[in-house]
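Final report, closing paragraph on structural work. Over the funding period we assembled a curated collection of sequence-structure pairs, and we close with a single example.
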Amino acid sequence: MDIAIVSLFPEFFSSVCSTALLGRAISKGILNVTYHNPREYAHGHRKNVDNIPYGGGVGMVLSIPELDACLSSIPEKGRILLLSASGKRFTQSYAKELAQEERLTLICGRYEGVDARICELYDIEEVSIGDFIVNGGEVGAAVILESVGRLLPSFMGKLESSEEESFSKGVLEYPHYTRPASYKGYDVPEVLCSGNHGEIARFRREKQLEKTIENRKDLLQNAILSREDRAYIEQIQYPRVSGNIYIGLVHYPVLGKNKKSIAVSLTNLDIHDIARCTCTYGLGGYYITTPIQAQQELCNTIVEHWREGLGAQHNKARSKAMECVYVVDTIEEAIESLRQSTGTAPFVIATSASAIPTLSYCDVRDIAKERVILILFGTSHGLAPEVYTLVDGILPPIRYIGGYNHLSVRSAVSITIDRILGDYF
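Its predicted structure, as stored:
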């Protein structure tokens, strides 16, 4: 593979490209790296390659004439990448994609950035190695150079070495140990010394999943997970968080069409579907609040039919879901019920299609690691203003950007809980 590096500081790569496996690959011709300095195309005594930005602002901008001339001097550029903090995130899958190319050109940004017109003159992909700032693109180019290079045939001694590493299969790598077996009171896990290859494989897989959940849960979105993997993730992840979350479906006080506080009737589908959502995600429970006695009796009749009546014989899954349903008069009664059953006051969260949010979905997940949470969902046209005097935080609307935001409450509950606890968040 031929890689052209466009940089004001080509000397940065002298050590990177002369040591270890990367240096060996270059010396063997597996990688051919050339350097191209825009300063060589600058004019004047000082050979400046930067200038002040149009529109004002701090810092300088890498000017376009020198960069254009430098790129034009490269006869075969192949795929062109600009290292930029505002670029697309560089990932292992991105590296695999680039490793299929015959040629790459890496432009190392400097100063506050490069003149944006360069991306109009050439087909350039902006790429970032992470959500942080460094002095220039040389660090990022070195990362790409090594991560792509090591995927080339003959770069590494054994192909499986790269296939078993972090990110290769959507999970982080398991921890490694070597001799001595005991060091300063810390021992190598006994299973690794057992010689039982099946148990060793299971131990390592569990450690991979644990580390991925703890450090990079987002990676699970692209991971290939077996049934055993999913069962283990559920075992170690959800009981710590989901059991602390309770749903409160509020029928009073809620807003009517005239924007006044009213009480509304129960909906059979809300009882069933939210109970099923509560059970699916392993939540602590589901409170239905209504001060109307006849509505409470109706709800209890429906719940008991599925818990202990003919419904329980007909549909055991529905019967299990209904075990988490509690009917109370008010929100305050639900709060007090949780205080008594858990020994602590719950952190109360409101949902709204219009109120200004104070919490993110990630915030809720973090709070649930330490505290019991009651999330309130309003029926009719949403929670009445007086409810907000009881809450500790407000979640953003489901459709935060769009203008139309009128989901059914059972849809809103499902989406909200999935954003908090969903497998890929």
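The chain has 16 helices and 17 strands. The chain has three domains: 2-162, 182-224, 242-421. We thank the funder for supporting this effort.
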